[in-house]
Amino acid sequence: MRIPRPRSLAGQLFAMQVVLVAVIVAGCALFAYVTDRSQAEDTARRQSQATAASVAGSPAVAAAVRAADPSAVLQPYAERVRRDAGVTFITIMAPDGTRWTHPQPGEIGRTYLGHTEQALRGEIYSEKYAGVLGASIRTVVPVRDPADERRVIALVSAGITIERISQQIQEQVIGLLAVAGGALALGGLGTYVINARLRRHTHGMNAAELSRMHDYHQAALHAVREGLLMLDGRRRIALVNDGARELLGLGGNAVGRPVTELGLPPALTGALLASEPRVDEVHLTADRIVVVNTSPVIGGERRGTVVTLRDHTELQALSGELDSERGFSHALRSQAHEAANRLHTVVSLIELGRVDEAVDFATAELELAQELTDRVVGAVGEPVLAALLLGKASQANERGVELVLAEDSLIDDGVLPPSIPARDLVTILGNLVDNAVDAASEAAVSGARPGRARVTVTARADDPAGSGGELLIRVHDTGTGVDPERAGDVFHRGWSTRGSGRGLGLALVRQAVHRGHGTIELGTGPDGGAQFTVKLPLTAAVPA
Questions:
Q1: What is the rounded CA–CA span in Å between residue 104 and residue 91?
Q2: In this structure, is the dihedral angle defined by the CA atoms of residues 269, 270, 276 and 279, taken in order, positive or negative?
Q3: CATH architecture of the domain formed by 9-168
Q4: What is the third-level CATH fold of 210-312?
Q5: Rounded Cα gap, residues 82 and 55, in angstroms
Q6: Burial class for 199, CB neighbours closer than 10 Å (0-12, 13-18, 19+)
Q7: 128, 132, 229, 464: which one has the fewest Cβ atoms less than 10 Å from its Cβ?
Q8: Where are the alpha helices (DSSP H) in 380-504?
Q9: Which residues belong to the signal peptide in this entry (predicted)?
Q10: Which residues are registered as beta bridge partners of 129?
Q11: CB 308 within 8 A of CB 290
């Protein structure tokens, strides 16, 4: 036997709301019925009292009571007043209860059915009593002697039957039920419309399914290592997972904040605010390189955006290291080629019998090759920087650029703290030297800077034992420099003197400097070219 599927959440709410509306309408109808009945009886009592008092106070009634045949005078009068007043009966009687008037003439002369004791004492008395015409609301009023107000000479009773009151209430109840039915139908229709919309939004799922989906949703958000960001129609953060918080450096109060208030780089903010999809765009934050994909959400009252973020920092760093290794390999191959050429020259001189010239040539070449190596190894004890400088020197020499290490450069081995990883040093110095070699080479080829193209590097650790020690890296070239008006743009992703969309190195340099809690400045060097100065503290900084 197939177990029936639980009713959807929208269906459950619809049933509950219909029952609730029905109960409210029924309760209001019952309350109105009870109230109307009570008000109807009160109205009947006041109407009968007013009618009886009016008849009892009439001088014609007091005069007719003394006549030989009171009924002959009072019966037509009582019937006329009864019809005009809208009551069921008006009975005028003697003090002993003998009727002089009645709607049914056959009852004239018979004894009145009801209580008259209080009326005989001069009081007005109302009661509910079953008489000849049935149960009624009636009032008995005394008729006083005009000559002696203390003497009761007759009694007047006016009343409205319960049946008549019930008939009036029934007419009101029919109208009330019609209104209640209309209210129930209108409430049911409104409930159906609202729940139909709810059913569309919940896709017909019941409460258990929605709860289970929410649990899966939360588990997936925390399990996915990639960053996930959801923006609403106003470009505010509607949802963010742990990965996105880490990649973008967001705090715990990020949900509900506009993207423009997150303090992200302008390019990344523009990508998040864009209405068109973005595919595998590389953006830089203060500490990371992220790959951004955005997709608009279609449907609903407002459009939102789903953003996925992938951490590209490690991959970019590995790519930079791989480029450096390739450069080293290329430099080694070049050096091997040059060494083979020089070796052939030496061998040829020996074969020609010019041994002394061969020795002089070989000695000069060794001294020239060893000079830079000795200078770098003697000044820079950090092996990563030393190897990088030697490799870059070979690459620069191939392009006709001389790489010079400044005389005041000095970094002892073991001075650099763990807060400055070797990978960041390779990123900073490697990109600065590459850019300087490019600028110097282009200036020399174009003739803008005649003479030998040169790049000068300063690497110095000042006061390494003190609390204020810092690592200084300065690179300047013989290129044409940077336009001062564009100095603020050089560190943005995509900036390059060769055209937009190509530069990434200086943006990576600034990011590495930021991770080391240092500073980077752009100025003009002694040779007129660009000069970049990086300062990194040698003591670990405490994040603010």
A1: 10
A2: negative
A3: 2-Layer Sandwich (3.30)
A4: Beta-Lactamase (3.30.450)
A5: 10
A6: middle
A7: 128
A8: 383-398, 422-446
A9: none
A10: 136
A11: no
DSSP 298: P
pTM of model > 0.70: no
Cα–Cα dist 65/222, whole Å:
101
H/E segment holding residue 227: strand 227-231
Say if residues 433 and 505 touch (Cβ distance below 8 Å).
no
Contacts with 451 (C-beta within 8 Å, 6 or more apart), sequence order: 444, 478
What phi and psi, each to the nearest 5 degrees, are found at residue 98?
A: -75, 125
The dihedral sign for the CA sequence 376, 381, 383, 388: negative
Q: Do domains 9-168 and 395-537 have the same CATH topology?
A: no
Are 80 and 140 in contact, with CB atoms under 8 Å apart? no
Cβ-in-10-Å burial (0-12, 13-18, 19+) of 420 comes to: buried
Copy the structure tokens of residue 317: 């760093």
Residue 447 DSSP class: T
- Residue 419: burial class (beta carbons within 10 Å; 0-12, 13-18, 19+): middle
Residue whose token pair is 């029924």: 26
- What's the sign of the alpha-carbon dihedral 79, 85, 90, 92? negative
Query: Of 192, 267, 275, 325, which is closest to residue 504 (Cα–Cα)?
Result: 267
Count of C-beta atoms within a 10 Å radius of residue 450: 9
Q: Is the four-CA dihedral 275, 280, 281, 282 of positive or negative sign?
A: positive
Q: What is the pLDDT along the chain (544 residues), one digit of tens a residue?
A: 444 545 555 566 667 767 777 777 777 767 767 776 777 778 888 888 898 899 888 888 888 888 888 898 899 999 999 888 888 899 999 988 899 999 998 888 898 888 888 888 888 898 888 888 888 888 999 998 888 888 888 999 998 887 776 676 677 667 777 777 777 777 777 777 777 776 676 666 666 666 677 676 666 667 666 788 888 878 888 888 877 787 787 877 778 788 888 878 888 888 888 878 888 787 777 667 788 888 887 765 557 888 888 877 665 555 655 655 665 566 566 656 666 666 777 777 787 777 777 777 667 666 555 566 667 777 777 777 787 787 788 778 878 888 888 888 888 777 777 777 777 888 888 888 888 888 888 888 887 777 788 889 998 887 545 445 888 899 999 888 887 776 666 766 554 554 444 456 777 788 788 888 888 888 888 888 888 999 988 875 444 4
Q: What angle do CA 328, 330, 336 make, to 5 degrees?
A: 100
Q: Tell me the C-alpha distance between 350 and 282, whole Å.
A: 58
For the structural domain made of 395-537, what CATH number should be given? 3.30.565.10
Kindly list the domain boundaries of the chain, sorted by start residue.
Answer: 9-168, 210-312, 395-537
Residue 537 β-bridge partners: 470
| Cα atoms in the 13 Å half-sphere on the side-chain side of 3 | 1
